[in-house]
């Protein structure tokens, strides 16, 4: 059966709120990043998808022409320090396209409307993120195990799927033998012979619910998302049968969150006085204002 037929057999999540604030749930595209040296980048393609307990992240200089050794994508556990109000991520070595963590600082966040401002504690940068989705399906599936069908051997891999309406993020790490190869080289200066194995770590983003519009893996550009060959194991686990490089593999996913119709945050609370101010001054303040994604 396909994924959506399988979901029809599952109950919606009873626990929706998680270890992180709900306003972080969804699919965010970065509008800009400004640095302490006075420079600002508004062109790099950056997406942050947030499920209840994990994140999928993709960063490309351009849709199709980012050099293989400069692509960034990862999947990791999301950690929230309630006392310090800081967000951070636990990204394993095999859960990252690159061989090192590119963003070591935690995030100090501030939400206004559909905007999340992310400040680095060192003040070296501030990022402006915009929520891309309003409502409908919210699904997070996290890979818990992978099995080689022929040998029945477990495969140490990581991956996940996050669906927010028509925005979809999919991540799947390299096969273990490929990961061992990549871990032993310097990606930044790797010879061309390593290109295919390096980019076999896939992070792909769909904006139409169907096709991989942005991806770390060249062969997956504009390909359809694979929602086929799923089966329900129990109320919180789905299994998918896939073929990777001719190898039959069973992927066991755990349901992180499943809400058939979820309303993602686009508005934030403010004071009565400021609401009155905005209303009274709207002819000037809102004359050119639009929802900016």
Automatic annotation (TrEMBL):
It comes from the Bacteria. This is DUF4905 domain-containing protein. It comes from Acinetobacter cumulans. The lineage of its organism: Bacteria, Pseudomonadati, Pseudomonadota, Gammaproteobacteria, Moraxellales.
């Amino acid at each position: 059966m396909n994924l959506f037929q399988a979901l029809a057999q599952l109950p919606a999540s009873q626990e929706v709120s998680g270890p992180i604030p709900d306003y972080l749930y969804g699919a965010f595209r970065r509008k800009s990043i400004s640095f302490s040296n006075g420079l600002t980048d508004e062109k790099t393609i950056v997406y942050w998808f947030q499920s209840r307990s994990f994140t999928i992240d993709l960063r490309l200089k351009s849709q199709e022409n980012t050099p293989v050794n400069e692509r960034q994508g990862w999947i990791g556990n999301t950690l929230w320090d309630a006392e310090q109000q800081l967000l951070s991520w636990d990204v394993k070595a095999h859960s990252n396209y690159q061989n090192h963590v590119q963003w070591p600082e935690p995030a100090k966040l501030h939400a206004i409307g559909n905007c999340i401002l992310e400040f680095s504690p060192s003040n070296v940068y501030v990022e402006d993120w915009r929520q891309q989705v309003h409502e409908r399906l919210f699904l997070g599936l996290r890979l818990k195990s992978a099995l080689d069908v022929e040998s029945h051997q477990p495969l140490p891999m990581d991956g996940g799927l996050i669906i927010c309406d028509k925005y979809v993020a999919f991540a799947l790490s390299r096969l273990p033998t490929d990961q061992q190869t990549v871990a032993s080289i310097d990606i930044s200066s790797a010879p061309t012979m390593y290109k295919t194995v390096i980019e076999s770590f896939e992070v792909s983003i769909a904006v139409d619910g169907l096709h991989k519009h942005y991806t770390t893996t060249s062969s997956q550009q504009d390909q359809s998302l694979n929602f086929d060959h799923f089966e329900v194991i129990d109320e919180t686990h789905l299994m998918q049968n896939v073929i990777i490089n001719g190898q039959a593999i069973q992927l066991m996913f755990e349901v992180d969150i499943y809400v058939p119709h979820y309303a993602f945050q686009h508005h934030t609370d403010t004071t009565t006085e400021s609401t009155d101010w905005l209303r009274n001054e709207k002819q000037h303040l809102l004359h050119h204002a639009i929802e900016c994604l």
